[in-house]
Amino acid sequence: PATSTYNWSVTGGTVNQSANGHTATINWAVAGVGQISIVETNQYGCISDTTHIAITIEALPSPDAGVDQTI
Fold first, then answer.
1. How far apart (Å, rounded) are the C-alpha atoms in residues 40 and 71?
2. What is the pTM of this model?
3. 38 touches 7 (CB < 8 A)
4. pLDDT in tens, 14-50
């Protein structure tokens, strides 16, 4: 609900957007394994259990122009 706040924490990256919103953009530092954890606090002050999500972070692809590198 819109009256809830959300506390995001990330292992292996950084939260790039609002840390209190119900969505977040995360920038991952390097390939490997990361984790997202989130806790919701509702309008009455009730705190949810922490939800943990394991993330596999793939390496960015390397561009390859092939052997002909001139136009």
1. 54
2. 0.72
3. yes
4. 988 665 678 888 999 889 999 999 999 999 999 999 9
- DSSP letter assigned to residue 47: B
Q: Cα separation of 41 and 46, whole Å?
A: 5
DSSP-derived 3-state class of residue 59: coil
* DSSP secondary structure code for residue 22 in this structure: S
Distance CA 21, CA 56 (A): 23
Q: Provide DSSP, the chain.
A: -TT-EEEEEEESEEE-S-TTSS---EEE-SSEEEEEEEEEE-TT--BPPPEEEEEEEPPPPPP---S----
